[in-house]
Amino acid sequence: MRWVNRHARRGDRIFLGALPILLLVLLYLFLAAQRHAANPMDKILPLPGSMADAMSVLLFQKDQLSGQFVFWADTLASLQRLGIGLGIATLSALAVGLVLGVLPPVRATFGPLVTAIAVIPPIALLPILFIALGLGETAKVALIVIGVAPVMMRDIAAYVAGLPREQIVKAQTLGASSWQIMIRVALPQAMPRLLHAMRLSLGPAWVFLISAEAIASDVGLGYRIFLVRRYLAMDVIIPYVAWIAILAILMDAALTVASRRLYPWAHGASH
Amino acid sequence: MSALLSLRDIWVEYGDKIVLERVDLDIEAGSFVSIVGPSGAGKSSLLRVVLGQEVPTRGTILLDGERLKPECGPDRGVVFQRYSVFPHLSALQNTIFGLECAKAPLTARLFGGARRRAMAEAEEMLRAVGLGDALHLYPAQMSGGMQQRLAIAQALIKRPRILLLDEPFGALDPGIRADMHALIMRLWRDYSLTIIMVTHDIREAFTLGTRVLALDKRRHDPHAPHRFGATAVYDLPLRRRADPAPSEEAAAETSQQNDEEEVGNG
Question: pTM to 2 decimals?
Answer without folding.
Answer: 0.84
